[in-house]
Each structure stands twice: as structure tokens, then as C-alpha cells.
Automatic annotation (TrEMBL):
<dbReference type="GO" id="GO:0043215">
    <property type="term" value="P:daunorubicin transport"/>
</dbReference>
<keyword id="KW-0547">Nucleotide-binding</keyword>
<protein>
    <recommendedName>
        <fullName>ABC-type xenobiotic transporter</fullName>
        <ecNumber>7.6.2.2</ecNumber>
    </recommendedName>
</protein>
<keyword id="KW-0472">Membrane</keyword>
<dbReference type="GO" id="GO:0005524">
    <property type="term" value="F:ATP binding"/>
</dbReference>
<dbReference type="Pfam" id="PF00005">
    <property type="entry name" value="ABC_tran"/>
</dbReference>
<dbReference type="InterPro" id="IPR005894">
    <property type="entry name" value="DrrA"/>
</dbReference>
<dbReference type="Pfam" id="PF13732">
    <property type="entry name" value="DrrA1-3_C"/>
</dbReference>
<comment type="similarity">
    <text>Belongs to the ABC transporter superfamily. Drug exporter-1 (DrugE1) (TC 3.A.1.105) family.</text>
</comment>
<feature type="domain" description="ABC transporter">
    <location>
        <begin position="5"/>
        <end position="235"/>
    </location>
</feature>
<dbReference type="GO" id="GO:0046677">
    <property type="term" value="P:response to antibiotic"/>
</dbReference>
<feature type="region of interest" description="Disordered">
    <location>
        <begin position="309"/>
        <end position="339"/>
    </location>
</feature>
<dbReference type="GO" id="GO:0005886">
    <property type="term" value="C:plasma membrane"/>
</dbReference>
<keyword id="KW-1278">Translocase</keyword>
<keyword id="KW-1003">Cell membrane</keyword>
<dbReference type="InterPro" id="IPR003593">
    <property type="entry name" value="AAA+_ATPase"/>
</dbReference>
<dbReference type="InterPro" id="IPR003439">
    <property type="entry name" value="ABC_transporter-like_ATP-bd"/>
</dbReference>
Length: 339
């Protein structure tokens, strides 16, 4: 039986851009799916299709057991949405914004007021409740946006990059609110560029890049797929990066990943400490000085780089090329069996 959020073969093109290139997802009721991917991966487009804001070119989707194309109004009544494009009215106060949402969802005036007050309290907005939203900081707007999505507790929630742009303290607070929400039985699809966030909140993770799900599993499963531990080397001198990369590629047990600006290289180490010793010997023999070397468990970051050849959070400055110039994989990624 399909889960509370289900999509099969979603395709959406904008001119020549294939924003979605056959996305399949299935989120069991009461669980959290983290849709993890860099800018432009297709996360928002997926959310827009699932929340009935956009029709796919092909594919189908069900939310709360309802077909999104056949019953968009019923779907809208079953979901909450917070995200980059959700509307906070700048000219209303925080309180008025939340009361308005309550009225839209047909709460009585009294209930709408009560719910607004509760949420303002909960999201640390009580002091600012009667100021217009246009005077709010970025973090306050995000909190108001999330509060608006929680005015009625919907069985299915979508959050599009809920913590992008928040400072660590506010991010932590939002994580706590999200955990409470999920503990109450809500099914949640959350998009994020932050590996740590997916690690923290999601029961399962779908890694998306270029409109495709390129891997899925729990955080642990994804880390294990990278092949056990990795050897990480930080070379002292940038000019030794190429030689070190050659050594690690030759001796290591998978794709070598080089991040130039941190002078850091990693390679999967199925052989564990034995490979570590070999690499140290070889570096020594060639007189290559290192700042650090060690064996460690892969992070979701390693997983992402090994899957896509670029870092999830390493965004290039506007106008520059992709992040491939700072992080690249020495060999093409070959983890495509899950598409
Ligand atoms: N309305 C649109 N018109 C044209 N291109 C779009 C539109 N929406 C998204 N795209 C393109 O589709 C791709 C996926 O975008 P999006 O789903 O917003 O990615 P993400 O949310 O993962 O950053 C990007 O290349 C983006 O530029
Ligand atoms: Mg987006």
C-alpha cells in the first residue's frame, strides 16, 4: 500500500531544463522523509507537485491517499506547507497573519485567535506579535512561516528548506518543534541542503540531484554504502595535492575525493588501518608533509560527494560554475542502481 506521500515517475520540464526526471518517493505514514540535494536539484519542484501547486508533465502522486491531480482541493485540506514560497503577508502583523490562516481553514474567530496566540508563544514571536511582518528579521519570518503551516495540525506536512538561512540557535529550536510535530503522528516531507539536518530529523533520506533520486536509505545505510571507513588526509602544501591524490587513488578502495580549499583528500578504506599504514609509508617515502591523517567513519557529506561528485552545501558564488571546482571525484560516481 502506498504511503501517506507517494510519487511515481514524476517528470517536469521548464524549456530545456528537466527539473524532475522521474522522481519516485514513498513515505510511510508517521515518518519523515528528508529530500536532500543541492540548489537546483528539483526539491522545490517536487514539493510544488505534491502540494498541487504545479502539474507534472507525467507521473502520478498521492497524498493522504488522494490523487493530487484528481482531487487537488481535498489534498490541500489534508496538508500543511511551509517553505520558500509560502505567503506571509508583509503588511499584516504576525498575529494577523496567523489568525488569517486560521480563518482560511475555517476556524471560528475565537479559535483562530487562540491558536495564533499559542503559536506566537511557541515560536518566540510573542513580543513581536503586533508588529507588521515586514519589520521581522529573516529568522523571525521563517518562524512565522512555519507557525502558519501549523495553525491546523495536518496529517501530512511539507517543509521546503525550513531552516535555510537560520542561525544555529534558531535552527536547533526549529528542529525541536519539528520533532514534536512528528511525535504527534504527522507524516513529513522535508527538503534540505544540510546533511546534518537530514541526519538529525529524517527516518529515511532520498538524495536528489538533477531531478533524480540517486540514492535512498537511512542515514546509516547511506554511510555504509560508501564502503565502511574512509582514510582522510590533509596535506600541508597545496602543490602536493595531485601526487597525494594519485597515491590514494592507486591504493584506496573506491573513489578518491579531493577538496582543494581545505587541502583534504578522502578515500574509502575497506582494509581499515592497513590502508592507513600503506598511505603513510608512501607519503613518507615521497617526502610529502601532512597536517593530519586518520581513519574515520564516513559522514553524509562523503556519501553525497561520492554519489554526485560534488558537495551538497558547497555552493559556488553567483555567476560561477558548479561546485566541481572545489570538490570533485576522481572517478565517475557509479551508484545509480536506485533510480
Ligand atoms: N518556474 C520555473 N521556470 C523555469 N525553471 C524553473 C522553474 N522552477 C524551477 N526551475 C528550474 O528547475 C530546476 C529545479 O529547481 P528547484 O526544484 O527549484 O530546485 P531546488 O529546490 O532543489 O533548488 C532548476 O534548474 C531551476 O532553475
Ligand atoms: Mg528549492
Amino acid at each position: 500500500m502506498p504511503g501517506a506521500i507517494y510519487a511515481e515517475g514524476l517528470v517536469k520540464t521548464f524549456g530545456t531544463v528537466r527539473a524532475l526526471d522521474g522522481v519516485d518517493i514513498d513515505v510511510p505514514e508517521g515518518t519523515v522523509l528528508g529530500l536532500l540535494g543541492p540548489n537546483g536539484a528539483g526539491k522545490t519542484t517536487t514539493v510544488r507537485v505534491l502540494t498541487t501547486l504545479m502539474r507534472p508533465d507525467s507521473g502520478r502522486a498521492e497524498v493522504a491517499g488522494l490523487d493530487v491531480l484528481e482531487h487537488p482541493n481535498a489534498v490541500r485540506r489534508s496538508i500543511g506547507l511551509s517553505g520558500q514560497f509560502a505567503a506571509v503577508d508583509e503588511y499584516l502583523t504576525g498575529r494577523e497573519n496567523l489568525e488569517m490562516v486560521g480563518r482560511l481553514y475555517q476556524l471560528s474567530g475565537r479559535d483562530a485567535k487562540r491558536r495564533a496566540a499559542e503559536l506566537l508563544e511557541r515560536f518566540n514571536l510573542a513580543d513581536a506579535a503586533d508588529r507588521t511582518a515586514k519589520t521581522y528579521s529573516g529568522g523571525m519570518r521563517r518562524r512565522l512561516d512555519l507557525a502558519a503551516a501549523l495553525v491546523v495540525s495536518p496529517p501530512v506536512m511539507f517543509m521546503d528548506e525550513p531552516t535555510t538561512g537560520l542561525d544555529p540557535r534558531n535552527r536547533q529550536q526549529l528542529w525541536d518543534v519539528i520533532k514534536e510535530l512528528v511525535a504527534g503522528g504527522t507524516t513529513l516531507l522535508l527538503t534540505t541542503q544540510y546533511l546534518e539536518e537530514a541526519d538529525h530529523l529524517a527516518d529515511s533520506i532520498a538524495v536528489v540531484d538533477h531531478g533524480k533520486v540517486i540514492a535512498r536509505g537511512t542515514s546509516d545505510e547511506l554511510k555504509t554504502r560508501t564502503g565502511g571507513d574512509v582514510v582522510e588526509v590533509v596535506v600541508q602544501d597545496r602543490q602536493h595535492l595531485a601526487a597525494t591524490e594519485e597515491i590514494m587513488r592507486r591504493l584506496g578502495d573506491g573513489d578518491t575525493v579531493l577538496v582543494e580549499h581545505t587541502r583534504k583528500l578522502t578515500v574509502p578504506a575497506a582494509g581499515g588501518a592497513k590502508l592507513l599504514a600503506e598511505i603513510i609509508r608512501e607519503l613518507d617515502g615521497r617526502g610529502i608533509e601532512i597536517d593530519d591523517i586518520g581513519l574515520r567513519r564516513p559522514t553524509l557529506d562523503d556519501v553525497f560527494i561520492s554519489l554526485t561528485g560534488h558537495a551538497a552545501e558547497d555552493e559556488p558564488p553567483p555567476g560561477a560554475g558548479r561546485a566541481d571546482s572545489t570538490a570533485r571525484s576522481a572517478a565517475p560516481a557509479k551508484h545509480e542502481e536506485n533510480q
